[in-house]
Amino acid sequence: MTDSSAPQAQDTSPTTAGDSGPQIPDDTGPAPSVTQSGTHPTVPSTTPSPISPFAATAEAPQPPDLAARLAAVNEIADADTRETTEANIRLVTQREIAAFIEQQRNAKAQAKAIIDQGGNIGTLPAKLLLAIDRPGRQALQNYVRAHGNPRSDAITYYRLKNLALDDPASFQAVDLGNHMAELDARDYSDLTKLQSEMGSGQMPADFPLQQIYKTQTDRLLQQLGLPAGSATAGNAAAGDTASGETAKAGHPDAQMVAQLRRDIDLALAAHKAVQGRPASAAEQQQILDQTVINHYLTRRQRMSAKASAMANTSAGVKGPR
C-alpha cells in the first residue's frame, strides 16, 4: 500500500516541477538570411555565427536531479514511509529522465537537420535553441565549425560501440546528439541506427556475433597489455562516456587501440563482401590475429624508418632527393 505522502506521477516533460528550465520567448524575430548559390544554400560568412546572447546566457534545460530528490526523502522520519516514498521518487524520476533524453534527441536532430541543409547557429529558431541543453549547444557549435562534415574520432566511436555491446541499457541512455561533431556521417548513422533498434526491442540479427567478436578482441588486447574496456555504466547513463580507466582518451595507447579496432572491422567487412556472409567466431579470430600482426609489423617498420632517419640526420647524411 502506497503512503499518501509519496509523490504522485508528474508531467514527464523535460522541465518538471522543481527543475528549472528556460522561459521560451514567443517572439523570436526573423532568422538571419541564407544566400543561395546554385541549388545549394551557402552561409554568407565562413565564420560560424555565435550563439545569440539570450541563448548563450539563458539557463539551459537540465534533467531531473535524482540525488537532490533522494536527499529530501532522507528527512522523512518513518522508515516505511521513507522507503515507499523513495521507491516512488526513483520510478517517477526515471520516467522524467527518459522523457528529457527523448526531447533532447528530437531537438538536436531538428537543429542538426537545419545545419545539414546549409544553416548555422544563427539560423536556428531561438525557441529550438533554448530547448537544447548546454552539451548539445556546444556540440552544435562544433558541428558548424566542421561545416557539417566532421571527421570521426575513433576513440569516441569505439567507446560508444563497445558500450552498446557491453551494456545495451546504458548505451540507450546516451544522448548521441552530444557527439555529432565527433563522428562522421557513417559512424553517426551506425550508432543512431543501433540505438533505435535497441529501443524498439529489435536487436540486430548479428548482435550476438558482434559481442563474440568484441570478447575475442578484448581478450587479445588484454594479453598485449592494452586497454580494452568501455565506459562505466553509471556515467554512461548520465551521458558521460569518457569514464573508466581503460576507456579514457588520455590513455597513451587509446588511439592505437581504436585504430586497431577500425582495421579489424575493415578486414571483417572485406571478408563479408567476398564470402557473402559474416565471419564465424573462428574466422574472426584468424582475422584478428593477422590484423594485429600486420599492425605491429607496420608500426615496427615506421619506428625503424624513423630511427634510421634520425641516425642519418645525426651523422649528417642526406637522404635521396
Structural features:
globular; 12 helices; two-stranded antiparallel ribbon; 321 residues; 2 domains; disordered N terminus; mainly alpha
Care to describe what's here?
- The structure is a single chain.
- The protein has 2 domains: 47-145, no CATH class; 158-315, no CATH class.
- Helices cover 56% and strands 2% of the residues.
- The protein is built from 12 helices and 2 strands; from the N terminus they run ββαααααααααααα.
- The chain has helices at residues 53-57, 66-73, 79-116, 126-130, 134-145, 154-166, 168-172, 185-199, 207-223, 233-237, 254-275, 281-315; strands at 35-37, 40-42.
- Mean pLDDT is 78; it is low at 1-51 and 231-247.
Briefly summarize what is shown:
This protein is mostly helical. The chain folds into two domains: 47-145, no CATH class; 158-315, no CATH class. Helix content is 56%, strand content 2%.
pLDDT under 50 segments (min length 5)? Answer: 1-51, 231-247
CA radius of gyration is 25 Å
Choose one word for the global shape: globular
* Beta fraction: under 5%
Mean pLDDT: 78
Euclidean distance between termini CA atoms: 86 Å
- What does the main sheet amount to? 2 strands, antiparallel
Q: Classify the secondary structure makeup into a structural class.
A: mainly alpha
Could you say how many structural domains there are in total? Answer: 2
Number of helices: 12
- Summarize the amount of helix as a percent range: 55-70%
Strand numbers in spatial order across the main sheet: 1-2
Secondary structure: number of strands: 2
Order of helix and strand elements from N to C terminus? EEHHHHHHHHHHHH
